[in-house]
Design goal:
Length: about 375
Amino acid sequence: MAIPASRIRMVLSSCYWSSYLEKMLSSSAARRFCSNARVGFIGLGNMGFHMANNLIKAGYKLTVNDIDQTAMKKFSDCGISTVETPFKVAESSDVVITMLPSSSHVLAVYTGQNGLLHGGSQVRPWLFIDSSTIDPHTSRKLSKNISQCLLKEKKGNADRPFMLDAPVSGGVPGAAAGTLTFMVGGIEDAYLAAKPLFLAMGKNTVYCGGPGNGAAAKICNNLAMAVSMLGVSEALALGQGLGIAASTLTNIFNSSSARCWSSDSYNPVPGVMEGVPSSRSYDGGFSSKLMAKDLMLAKASAEEIQQKCPLTSEALNIYMEMCSKGYESKDFSCVFKHFYSGNHNLSLNLYLKSFKDCSISNNFDYIINQIRSI
């Protein structure tokens, strides 16, 4: 089978930049670029706020930017430099990290008016790291555009900047605790040089390959997470309908073959697990609208390579329905409500009717009345 010309160009480009960066990082002084870097951070939302804060705790000198002035004030009040545009972030930074909601936001921050690349063909940062969850195509295109720029000041032997796509897993709790997992695409030597930054914000890093591969890994991870949450929610709803307490069924799942993150770490049933969104009215966490967005990215990517993904489509339909019902800002585990109406009395009546039909007790009517009086 013939290899597409675009694929050949990407491989050749990767080989060139790998050799180029190897020269740049040949000395120990060059490898300390990230350790001593002035860091710019753009996107101070639920995730970015904690990531930026952990970089500050690790001793990095930050300049931050966000369209939300309230978020910016939290940093300026602590003496952290805040600027009004992404371009001004770039002008004062060696490395820039972006954490934004969607592909359109990323493109606006990088290539829009007063964006990071507003200066034309010359830029100051030698490394750009995008931790947003966006489609691989956009990430690869942006990486190519950045590689064609020149540095205003050489870093070692390098005169061109680099980009890493580095989306994360772990959610807001992981961002706050500094336990995120970074899935990183781009030139491997750039990944190795940036590792101190990742480990200041997270606990694990996984190198996924060339440009865009981090973005690809992220949407695949979130697809699997969405489908598993749907499966666990559907099973727990069915169990309650058949008379099994959600806590009991969860214990069975977690000691059996159904065990997964959605059952043992992020259970979707209110009251079963403390410290998760389902136990605080599904507030906080990863919103349903963002899960729908990620499923859209997965669906579009599958269509681009003509890959059949029926579960992706069904999961997307369910999350779009949840959003249309007003749950768009609730944590994605609220999908449990799609399967379970919360009608405990109906479930109890069905269970008791089944129990009565078995004629286990002559005093059954008395027992039913006693239970219903509780």
